[in-house]
Amino acid sequence: MGLQINWFSSIIEVTSPTTSVDMQTLHDFIEDQMATPVGFQHDDIIQPEGKIEDASNPGIFSQIIIVLNSPWQIQFWPGSGYTRIYGGKLVGGLSDQPFKATGTAGDITVLESPVDGVTSVVATGSAVTEQDKTDIITGVHAHTIEGAMTSEKMMRLLFAVSCGAAYDADTHGPITPNTARIEYMGADGVTARIISTADLYKLGGRDSVAWNPN
Question: CA-CA distance, 60 to 204, in Å (whole number)?
Answer without folding.
Answer: 89
